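Convert to structure. Protein one:
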Amino acid sequence: MTKADLVEEVTALGDLTRRDSDVIVEAIFGAMVSALRQDDKIEIRGFGSFRTRQRKPRIGRNPKSGERVHVPAKRVPFFKPSKELRDQVNQSEPSAYVLPLPAAF
């Protein structure tokens, strides 16, 4: 699924234009990136959690030349799925997961 597919799914949920759905998806992703930049943990019940992990500096190799290269320390995003998500992915029968709609729809 691409971001465009996700925007289409949000548009199909109700009386939203494609532009409104795009703004919603961008806002969600922007908020998630902002939280991870501040080292906050994102927890979505029933889906999973996002956090950053610190990677140590290391010596790597350039695959083309074999030359040793210094790779600096960095933070990387990490996703841990919830038990509910793992169970849904591993169900023997595929079923469409439907998000509960707010009362406004």
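Protein two, convert as well:
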Amino acid sequence: MSLNAAASAERVHIGFFGMRNAGKSSVVNAFTNQKLSLVSAVKGTTTDPVTKAMELLPLGPVVIIDTPGIDDEGELGEMRVKRAKQTLNKTDVAVLVVDAAVGLRENDRTLLDAFRAKSIPYIMVYNKADLLPVVPPAGEHEIYVSALNGDGMFELKERVARLMQSIKTDKTLLGDLVAAGDVVVLVTPIDESAPKGRMILPQQNTIRDVLDHGAINVVVKETELEQALAALKRPPRLVVTDSQAFGKIKDLIPTDVPLTSFSILFARYKGELQLTADGAFAINELRDGDTVLIAEACTHHRQCNDIGTVKLPGLLTARTGKKLNFAFTSGTEFPDDLSPYALVVHCGGCMINEREMKARLQSARDAGVPVTNYGILLAHLNGILQRALEPVLPKTEG
């Protein structure tokens, strides 16, 4: 998908970190050439991460994140520091802003350790270089700038752009599964939860990816699927469905036509397919009193028959026959401690970037808690998990 019109989840996330009064917000404003963040001589002016999706030359579409000072104090300060650290889970490129007149301090070194531990490409920006009598030579990961007069900002953008290039991949939702001229049928139910007048993001992204690879989209509701298939001169190369329609359409698709779901494509695209596929089988081990966490990355308005809070709990209860408890999170909320849960069921993650999705999966792995996603679980509950995974699994020789 072209990044010229990329959704926030598809943009490189650039996080600015540092101690209070190092000039993070001033650097962010000079870097973006906008008054994106409030600037003040008072310590702790930035109280929450400030996030802005924007086009920034020569970087292209990015998300800029200005975080609270890592040395904030008091009860509220500790909460702000926690949010700043949580931002690391979605940061693709980190910018550590240091007061050049003071130099690196312990909190700065702690951040550097965190960047390295999470394999985040980073650069140290020594701000307020205009206050130094002599600007020392910069190291490999260093640059001296002045947010006040703009010195070094062009070079900083160039350095960040190079770091962005180092993390870019040629990953695609389904471009490696189809060839130019192939027909791809996308089954997109329009029900009470569908946004009026538009399509949800996974459908939009998949349509665009099909177009980008020269294939042909046939977009149809599940109620017209049989007619659409009959109208085609040749079988489709692939059928991708909303996971909730698996039960209605699985018998309409010939077994020799590959079938998968939008959610499973996203599990491969920005998650860990094998981990979440294995997690689906954990429903067989659920016991009375277990708690299942159902996590969504978006904050949509809940409908009366909502997939996360109504349908999935009902299906899991019916399938297992157990008295289960359910917990729910949405948007940026995600527990630091997953040990209270017997299973995590996550949405496809279209609203968060790959790094944040993988950080959530790693949290489950670290806690020893099985994790799956909506589409994989629904395929399993419909008895077609292997079939739904077959089109996206790596092909082996022989």
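The CA atoms of residues 25 and 37 lie 5 Å apart. The chain has two domains: 3-167, 171-398.
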